[in-house]
Every structure is written in C-alpha cells, then in structure tokens.
Structures
1.
Amino acid sequence: DGGITQSPKYLFRKEGQNVTLSCEQNLNHDAMYWYRQDPGQGLRLIYYSQIVNDFQKGDIAEGYSVSREKKESFPLTVTSAQKNPTAFYLCASTPEWGKNIQYFGAGTRLSVL
Amino acid sequence: AQSVAQPEDQVNVAEGNPLTVKCTYSVSGNPYLFWYVQYPNRGLQFLLKYITGDNLVKGSYGFEAEFNKSQTSFHLKKPSALVSDSALYFCAVRDNDDYKLSFGAGTTVTVRA
C-alpha cells in the first residue's frame, strides 16, 4: 500500500451523522483521488484533487465533500445526504495530475448502523 | 466517453495451468491501459500498463498482457498460475484527453491447488 495511509480501517455511521475518512500520503504526490467500491461495480470516482487547495467532483460526488488544505492530506466526509454510504472507500495518489500509475491506500470499510 | 468491460465475473483455473483474464475497452483517442490486482480488504496494486510500443507488455509477478487495437482488447495472462494469484483483478483505461481512469467491474480469479 506504499506511502498512503487510510484510517480508520472500519467505520460505522449512524443515520443522520456525518463521518470523515482520513487519507494521508508521504509520497510527495500532487494529485489525490477518492473512489467508492461496491461489489460487482468496480471503482467509481467520487472526488479528485490535482494540486493542493484545488479539487473537482468526480462521477458520484453527491452526498460527499472533501478538502485539500495540505499536500499530504485529502479527507473525505460522507454526509447525511448520502443515503447509501455502505461501501469500501479507497484513496489514491499520483505524482502529478495525468501521471498514470495510481498508488492506493488499504481502504476504509464504511457501514451503516 | 471511455469505458471498460470485463466479461467474466469469475475465472477458475488449476494451479500450473495458464490463466487469462479478459478486458475490452472503448475510448475516443489512443488508449492508456492498466491492470491492477486487489487482495481481500486491501487497496489495489499496479500490475502493468500499456501506453505505446510493443503490444506485449510484461509486468509484476509473471503477468503479461497483450494489446490488440483491432479487437480493442487488453487481456491479462500468466503462463502458469499459482494459488497465491487468487484475487480480484481490475482493468482500467483512459484516453489522451481525460486523465481520469475508468475501471472495469473486476474479475475474481480462483486458482485451486
């Protein structure tokens, strides 16, 4: 899993609650990504950030928010507006935007209580 | 728009036999193609990529893939499978103009002893 650390490994959300997933990288990479993985659906892009203080919506951004205040950190908040949050969430990074090989963290599994 | 299809949800082979995992793609420009592997409750690990050049690409752990432009395919192969190759395999593609990756739904490989 290289130099990308995701925490916690498991997370439980109560109805109406916002939760935040942490993603930290020590690879000095400019670009970072958040994906959602559901069985049989592959990975879907939630948000991405090409550089610090910038981020863009991916294909399924509704109900999620992010920030990129530091180069090494790209936290994802799953808000109460996300009605089906149960999934495996993966954070990734690349040295530069458009540089091809993505390096992934070990993931956070989010479940709803 | 770009897309990837992995037509087989599961592939089962005996140890020592050849392993093939199929992938077809659709892009508007020249494709950048990737294979990743995921072990249970872990992030994705990069196996190999095709950008340009030789149509046969060699990667990690004895895997290789053949780019076929006329058939728009990028099948993953290993001449002699190991039990430790049992995992979930993802094909991914992007084209020249869009730096976001599109992932297939994944193929579960089971290698029996």
2.
Amino acid sequence: RKEVEQDPGPFNVPEGATVAFNCTYSNSASQSFFWYRQDCRKEPKLLMSVYSSGNEDGRFTAQLNRASQYISLLIRDSKLSDSATYLCVVNPSWGGYQKVTFGIGTKLQVIP
Amino acid sequence: DAMVIQNPRYQVTQFGKPVTLSCSQTLNHNVMYWYQQKSSQAPKLLFHYYDKDFNNEADTPDNFQSRRPNTSFCFLDIRSPGLGDAAMYLCATSLDGGYTFGSGTRLTVV
C-alpha cells in the first residue's frame, strides 16, 4: 500500500458544482496534513492545513478522519480558476525536520 | 517579500554535461529540500539539509549532488545528466511545518 494515495482523476465538473477529493495515508502516527494546489508546470502552493476539527477557508473545507486515515478537500461553487492539481501532503511530525510524503495529486478541471 | 528563488527557470543541457541549479531563500528557514518532479508524478525527495547536516535519500542516484554554503543558498549539481533526468526540480524550505516552494527549474536534456 502506498504511503499516501490519491485518485489522480481527472475530475471534470461544471462551474458552480461541489466537488470533493479524498486522500488516504498508511502511517497512523502521521501528525499533520496539508493540501497543496499545483497549476500546470508551476510549483505547488499551500492551499490549507488540515486540522482534526476540520477547517474552512471560503469555498474550501478540509477535514481529517484519523480513525479511517484519510483527509478530504471539499470545494463548493467551483470556479474555472480552481482547475489545477491538488496534492495531499502528510507529515509524520509536528515540528523540527519534516520528511513529508506527497500524494500523486488529483487533477480537477472545471468546465464552463 | 520573503521567498524562495530558483534560477534558472528553464535549463537546457546536453547529455552528460554537468549542470548546476540554484536556490536561494530569504525566509531564514533551517531546512532546505530538493525535489524532482516528473510529469503526472508526485514530487520525489532527493535530499535535504537540516542546517548544515546533509541527508541523502537512499534511492537518490550518485549522479546528483548538493551543496549548501550558507543558510540562504542551496545548489543541485547533476554530474552527468541523462535523458531520464529531464524533470522539474523544486527547491523548498520549511521551519515549523508546511513547505514554501520555489518556482522550480525545468530541466531539458538534449
């Protein structure tokens, strides 16, 4: 089993739709989790951190389910500009040096 | 603005000709990383520095070397690039979680 697994997609959704991605991780001791957004041929950029209580930033909601070892990202009212690849990142520790593991990313295409 | 800067943005090199990619940061982060990312793949960690301590991933080819002369700068040296080394090379820094990436250097080997 891969350390971090994501459905690579692509997810093709119409503008205004709600879309959700999941990411599963194998290391139950993992401590912190992130979603990154990567545009085509660009570097990954931090979208949001994922906390146990879940967190929301505008149209984006991230949740963590430790029991089932997955994190999710929900995008409401999708915009064309949301088209990108969303990378799940899992960190085994809270601070100091972190050797994180990246998922392969889920590609989202929002269509008019 | 504090940031991670990679140069050049695009690099074309000949098969077997040594090439160096550079990364600088103004964030004063103690950890710096080099990742290799090929199309439709996750970034793959090559090595990292924790302050001056160098850590090589077990599966990083010997063809790849790195230098960190000071906190701000880090270099990736590819001694004899092969066609399979064509990729995006990402430099990143971190302090207390969450990475800041540079814009990457896209390497083409001809």
3.
Amino acid sequence: QVQLQESGPGLVKPSQTLSLTCTISGGSVTSGNFYWGWIRQSAGKGLEWIGHIHTSGNTNYNLSHGSRVTISVGTSKNEFSLKLTSVTAADTAVYYCARARAVTLRYFDYWGQGRLVTVSS
Amino acid sequence: EIMLTQSPGTLSLSPGESATLSCRASQSVSSSYFAWYQQKSGQAPRLLIYASFARATGIPDRFIGSGSGTDFTLTISRLEPEDFAVYYCQLFGSGDSSWTFGQGTKVEIK
C-alpha cells in the first residue's frame, strides 16, 4: 500500500521560495512507471495541477507558473520535492502530492493528506 | 490546452435520489485518460472512476461513469449520506503531458 505525506513550512513570506517534500511509503520515485505530481487547491476553489516528475526523471510543469516551479527527486529515492519561487498571496493553498499511472491509463490513485501553505508577511 | 467544463455547479438532492454530473471537454479526448474524483471537506480527493467507466478499488456500484469523445457523465444512483461532496473530472493531455481538472460539482443535501 502506497502512502504519501507532504511536509514543509506552513508559512512563507512574499517573494520567498515555497519548498515542500513528499515522502513516499511503500514505493519509490525511481521504480515502476509513474508520475509523481503536485496539485494545489486554494480556499474554496478547485484543483490545479502544478507539475510532475516521471519515474525516468523527466518533468512537466503547468505553464501558467512560468519558470517558478521545480520538481525534483529528494535526497532519498522515496522523496520528491516542490520548489515555487517568488511566491505571492495567490500561492496560498493546500498543496497535495499524488501518484499517477503512466502506462495505458492516466489517473491519480494515491494522494497525500495535503499541506496548507500560507503566503504572508 | 483542453478545457473541462463541469455542470451543474451545484446539485441539491435528497438521500435516495440519483445524481447526474456532466463534464464536457473542449475537444475530443481519450477515454483512457479521463477520471472522476470525490472530495469531502478537509480531505484529499479520492479516485472514483478511471478510464471513463472503471470503478476504483472499493467504490460502490452506485457510482457509474460513462461517456466518450467530449461528453462524460458520472451518475450516482440512490444517494447515500456519505455521497454528498464535491466531484471533479480530470483529463491527462498526451500532447503536452499535462493534467486538467474541471471546476467541480458540489452535490449537497436538499
């Protein structure tokens, strides 16, 4: 059974960098054929895909964030991280990490519980 | 970029009734890349339906997914109290390897 857990600061100052880590139990970022993604949800709003890293190491990002987003494998193979630079209040949201199938079908089957990040001075 | 439009925004129904939720894509998409999620307040989304009609593990058979091309439907027959939640459709865009979610449909108790 795969489990995901987000961690990182819950408060980030404007213009600084938001950094979150997703720790995987029961799996590894580099094994199998999966996408490991970040999705966020602002208060009362819908789900927004931020980006993902594939088992191969390839990344794809939501173009709406320009070059602010970086997703990478963590220091251990059961972690991947999100960095979002130059944050503003609009980046305040619950951030979820999730795993998606990358073979034949595409859907997110495992999700973390979410991490609320508030951007405020 | 393919857009997903869900309707209605809110559905007010009573337990025992049926719910019909719609998700329309701005262009024809692959059913293999289409899914539905349920989200309850304060919780992460939960996968309900993948590949347009296949139920995820543990999902009751009152949840029925259908559709192809541009029009997809989630039908919930005989609403149970635990079914009142927000539902999102999702698409994977193979052209640019991106993910899109609909804006959600809230199913509330009437």
4.
Amino acid sequence: KAGVTQTPRYLIKTRGQQVTLSCSPISGHRSVSWYQQTPGQGLQFLFEYFSETQRNKGNFPGRFSGRQFSNSRSEMNVSTLELGDSALYLCASSSGDSVYQETQYFGPGTRLLVL
Amino acid sequence: GESVGLHLPTLSVQEGDNSIINCAYSNSASDYFIWYKQESGKGPQFIIDIRSNMDKRQGQRVTVLLNKTVKHLSLQIAATQPGDSAVYFCAENIIVGDMRFGAGTRLTVKP
C-alpha cells in the first residue's frame, strides 16, 4: 500500500500571499489530520477531517483552513501568509472507522518558507 | 495546561547498548499513546503504540512501558544501531484525530 503523499514538498512564498497544500491519505483511510512543525513550537495540531467534515480543530487563527474531498484527499490553505508561518506542514491519515483513535501515519511534509 | 513533555532533550548511546527514552504526560484522560521516530527531512515514522488498558507492549527491538500511576511513558530500544539515530516523539491522544506531541528527544548512536 502506498503511504501518505504530500505535494508540493517545498514551497517559497512572500508575506501576504496565500498557499494551498495537498495530502493524499493511505488508500482506505478516511481521516486526515494536519500538523505544523516548527523548531520553537514543535508539532502542533491544526485540524482533522473525516468524511469531508472537520471534526476537530486546534488553536490556530482562521487564516488556516482546510477541506476534504469525497476521495478523502485533503487540502489545507493558509491565507495572508506571515513570516511565522514558515514551517514543515505534515499530514497524517488513519482509518477513522473507530470511535477510538487509531494509528496515524505521516506523510513526508511540505516545507514552506515565507519571505 | 495539559501537555506532553520529555525529560531529556538529548541522549547519546554506544552502538549495541540499550536506549531508554522517557516521556511524562499530564492528562489522565489520555487513552492512546504513540512513539514516533523522525529523521532529518522526513515525516514522523510510527514505531509502536499502546492503549491505556495496557502497561507494556513489545515490538521488534522496541518496548513501550506505560505507568498510568505516575503518568509516565518510556520507549526502550534494544541493541541500538546507528540507524536508530533520530528524534523520538511521544504523542498522546484524548480526542480522535488530535495527537498531542512532546518536544522530542534526539538520540545519537556512537559507533
């Protein structure tokens, strides 16, 4: 089975621009979670989608948004980019079939640099 | 607030020795824990997990111990190899889809 894939792998943007990142989960997985990883804050939860609905959300401003499609692929969008948004953005998928958390498998991440 | 934390930010061991990486968590409602390994330039890689109804789980060369009394989690790596050098994260789950990660411990294996 192919793992979680993320595109693009690297991205350079300037302040004020917006960006869209894409994530394809493991085949059959319906839950996709997004995380931001920075040296200062570590890995922080952004949001989680299941069956095209946002189920949970972390403590990030409204500039960070996401969506999920019927094939479980997910995108996240960051509008009005700030320098502090420079980070590695990771997505993770799990089956989502249980009411209990199941193993999340991560993609390689998208490295975003905001200039 | 509730958080997951690691006792040691760095750990250096000799090749062939056993490694123990510790993690303290403060949320007694956490019911699922995962250890991840992250190598430079890569996403976190699943190592082993454990649910709160267990206190020990073994995998290939790795063992996770959970002590709910003192809210402590540890990862034991047997016969540590150079390929084990990476940053190790513990993560706890309270709400489905939301894993809370510790700061990470950098493991360095000396040949």
